[in-house]
Structure formats: structure tokens, C-alpha cells
Amino acid sequence: MYALPSLFLSISLIACVAFAQDPSWPTILLFTHTAGYRHEAIPTAISTITSLGNGSLVLSDDNVDSTIKSGRWNTNNSEDATLFNDVASLKQYDAIVFAFTTDVDPPGVGSLLNDDQTANLLEYIEQGGSFAGIHSATNCLYSYPAYGRLVGAFFTYHAQSQRVTLKPTTRDHPSTSKLPDTLTISEEMYHLRTDPRKLPSPATALLTNASAYPDPGGQRGEGNPQPLAWYRSGSLLTSGASALGGDLDGQTQCTGGGGKTFVTTLGHEIATWNNAAFQGHIQGGIGWLLSVSANDGTAVSTNGGSSSSSSSSPSQSSTSSDETRSSPSSASHLGASVAVLTAALGALFACTLAL
């Protein structure tokens, strides 16, 4: 009889896994490999992104854009660089997310990806793949200018983590439409070597700093207002040396890329990931990247993954009955989960009788 609690736990976990994965949802590769500094917030970030994707973390209407609130995705988290050994394996993903990836600068010791693996990532982008970068995604692969163009800019330095106030620079995007007018949190303020708004495919800034804080100063090339998060659509790898500067020049054979990027430099602190406003920022960014909508958990895919006809453009948050109505996919997922749980309870009852 003492085996029953562990048996029930195992069955419950099976039921939870069945609910958390659905082949009709888009799938992201959440890559958290580090060759340099390793952030303490990585496990919390993985849990948050996974939970937002599978619906086990549900935000209130005050924190998440209605257009992506019910959108779902599968998360495959890995630190295995061999996943980048060929483009075919990358094309199973609807988007690639670099979170807390770090390198050394220059990357003479412990590069995040080797030359061939980086080339495959860039080919994935050229073929229409989309990309998200979270926190130190700008702090890696310095020897590859095309990656710098993809992520938007390379990191240069940050002030110490401290209490700062942020404000959205636009609300015409799901990642910022529900943010408060000012958001005060403890975070690192990233400075960049170049301005992502000067790319041939110019970035649109989403967040900026709205407070004074101690800053030691250093190389800054990000322009004003200071971009702390941004998004881009199309021509993700196209070069334009006159506007980019030395960090992003070169590798001109890498060009085009019809997908989308969402980048936020926030997320250093574990407390940030537990902040509902920031969680909405992340869900809005990844949801927009995948084109998931409140009415359909699937996404427009350019890489052989899931597909639907949902819109891919940024949209202003609007209130509709969809906010309070379960999506068709959510209903089917719930039904499947109930069926699995019922079967699990039946098995548990049978085991109980046997004992």
C-alpha cells in the first residue's frame, strides 16, 4: 500500500505531460547553452517560458494581450549545440529562442557554436526562420557579424543590477500593449555597440529606460531612446555596412531572411521572471513571433512545422469575447487531458484492488 502515493504521482505526471504537449501547436527550440557567464535565472526562465506555452501559467487580462492570450506552443529546451549540426533538424522548429546564451569576447575560448553550426543557424534564418533573443542573447557569437545583424546589436556593458523604471515606447505590439505606463523592477540596463534601428531592416524599439541610476559609463552605440527591447520583420540578415559599423559588417553572403525577431535585454533577475507584467512581455513577444492567436493555438510556419492562417503583424490590444472564451484547441486539449486522467484513475483503482 505504501507504493500508492508514488504510483499516483507517476500517473499524474503522465497526465500533465499529455496536456503539455500537442503536435498541432508550434514548437520552439529554447537554447540556453553558455560558454561564458551562466545566469542563476536560467531554470526559472525555462519554467516560465514552458508554462506560458503549454497554458499551465495563465496570466490575467491585465497582463497579456488578448490577441495571443490563448495561443499555445511546445517548448524543447536544450543546451546541446549538436542540434545545430544540420539545417534539416532546425527546420522542425517554428522559431529558435536564445535565452541567456553567453560567449567570451573575443570568442577564442569556448565559443557557443562552431563555424558550421552558426552557418546552419543563419541558413535556417535565410530560409524564413524566426528568432527570439532574451537577455544575454546579444552577448554571444561576436565573431559572426551576420548573427549580430540577426539579434540586432552586440552587447557592450551594463550597469549593476539595481532598481530602475522602464516605460514602453509603443503599445502597438503584443509584448508591450499591456505593460503599465511605468514598470519599476530591479534589473541590468544593457548598452549596445550599435543601434538596431539603423539596420537595413530597422528595429522598432519596444521599451526604454525612464529613470536615472548610477552607471559607470562605457562604449555606447545604441542611440536614443535607449532600446531595451525591439522587434523586426524581414531582411533579418541583410547587410549595410555604412549604417551598421564594424561589429556588424562582413559575412555579406548571409542575406535576406523573411522571418521575424523579438529581442528583450531584460530578465537578469529571478524576480523579474516572477513579475506578471514581464511574463506578459515574454508571452506577447514569443506569441507574436509564432503568430499564435486567441482563436487558434497553431502558427504560420515557414519551416515545415505547424501551420494556420493567423495574422503575423503586430496588433493593438483589444477587448473582445475571445478573452473570456476558450479557444477550440484549448477545449480539445482539456478533453484529451480529462480522458488521460480518467484512464489514469481507472488504472489506479485497478492497482488498488490488486493490492
UniProtKB/TrEMBL annotation:
InterPro entries linked: Class_I_gatase-like, ThuA-like
Domain (ThuA-like): residue spans on this chain: 28-288
GO terms assigned for molecular function: transferase activity
Keywords, ordered alphabetically: Glutamine amidotransferase, Signal, Transferase
Signal peptide residues on this chain, from the entry's feature table: 1-20
Record's compositionally biased regions (Low complexity): 306-331
Pfam families: ThuA (PF06283)
Region described as Disordered: 208-231, 299-331
Record's keyword annotation contains Signal: yes
Parts forming coiled coils: none
Protein name: Class I glutamine amidotransferase-like protein
